[in-house]
Predict the structure.
Amino acid sequence: MRILSIEISAFRNIARQVVEPGPGLNVVLGSNGQGKTNLVEAIAFASWLRSFRTSRTSDLVASGGEAAHLALAVESGGARRHLEVSIAAGVRRASLDGSPVRSARDALSALVVACLSPDDPAVLEGGPDGRRALLDRFAVLLDPPRTALLSRHSRLLRERNALLRSGPEAWDEAQMDATEEALAAAGAELLAVRRAALAEVVARLPAILAPLAGGPMPVSIRYASRWAPREGTAAPAGTAAQLRAAMREVRVRDSALGYTSRGAHADDVEFELLGLAAKGHASRGQRKLVMLAWKAAEAAALAETRGEAPVLVLDDALADLDADRQEAVVAFLHAHEGQSFVTGAIVPGQAIVGATVFRASAGAFERV
Amino acid sequence: MPSPGLPASVNGLIAELKKLPGVGEKTATRYVLHLLGRGRDAADALGGALSAVSTKVRPCPRCHFLADGDLCELCRDPGRDISVVCVVEGAPDLLAIEKMGEYRGSYHVLGGAISAIRGVTPDRLRIRELVARVDAGGVAEVIVATGADAEGETTALYVRKALEGRPVRVTRPATGIPMGSSIEFLDSVTLLRAIRGRKEL
């Protein structure tokens, strides 16, 4: 899978540009604020139909412009696909080969982007929601129709919370039963999906991380759940029944809390580095390396399950790393099968050798 | 916003038309000007048809689909099997199933799906009426064809519970492998449902 060309109009600081990236490593160089990130953000947006930087779509439209527009020619599964996305008045519209695209899952059938944004390493330090989102996004990349499961699960959770807040006297007992049964079924499905997705990453990450770190770097990543049966001990139906019983047991207490205390929405992905919890112990550089290895593991897993390598986007990947680590990352990118993009203000000389290099300047990209 | 220069009555009609799905200011204005251009008869015919719908159409007392008089067209059709009842959320779902042309049973229109968020409680749907219909006898199977989304699933589970212990078969339409797709590239959620809902060859 690779992007043959991307035409960008009125997107952030990019007035109008046509960029034709190379098939392998693409390096986007430039000083701060020139539009490096905007270019890779546009690429990721075309795949995800949302930004890794903002949830306000209107931020993406160039100031003074009415509508932003992206048009990509993508080679995918041996075919040439045409993906178009426009953003106007906070609404995005997309089409694939001329047919309207309703959700990201359709866009993801043509263009899969595994993307490391500068904010990603911080999820190792933050709350569990960031780590769940990291895993869920990857689970969707592996199998795009899972977006339906994710939205059904979160909707059912909000349904139960709304009932809880109405109070034990007000809620219809049978409605609560039905809501919990549906939520437990979705939660059990989600648990299975997340564990399977995490296993794909865990199987590949240490081997990718070692050369980046310049030697073995013991890392342990574990799906942490306070309610779920141990992995491999229960079928989804049994897990659902167990979750349903757990929710039922704490119904009244949850009602006092005003939210659902048990379930897949409260799970976590725990990272341990060198035997210590990454949260509070890992350095900035270590977090960056682990997340780089995570994204590379995602890309490798996607290449295997979908039959072709995704586009790998690493925004500002080399910052916070020492010279040796930077060299190791560059070597990894050169060895990476498939198309990749890396941005940076300064990159080591060997990154440029054999790569397609663009220089960003005031929203324009010049191939050098 | 009302178009400046148009009489208030014309702007009033435009405002009403704009409330329809898929109709914006431009389309509504075009409809009204077209109607006015065709003369008084055309406007009267539309007005007559509208008022006939609002005065005559009532929910069918049996299935709660739209009816002109007493029972709806479907319930009056002697060729339909009233021992099978297909439960749907709304009239559009019923029409979709009818369009398929294969189903010859009867229906029960719930009038929505359960949602605490939107304030749709079970007693606001016609679930009690469904149970009464089953209790009245003559119903062998209830097909719960509510949506596969959060509200539809919750409603289906609620209906199953409401009918529990009654001598009636409660089924749910299969969700499975779309025609023409290969197993290899199927998403795991669909595959799991398809395997669970497998049937004899």
User: Anything to note?
Assistant: Chain B touches chain A at residues 114-117, 121-123, 149-151, 153-155, 157-158, 161-162, 187-190, 192 (CB under 8 Å). Chain B is about 40% helix and 10% strand.
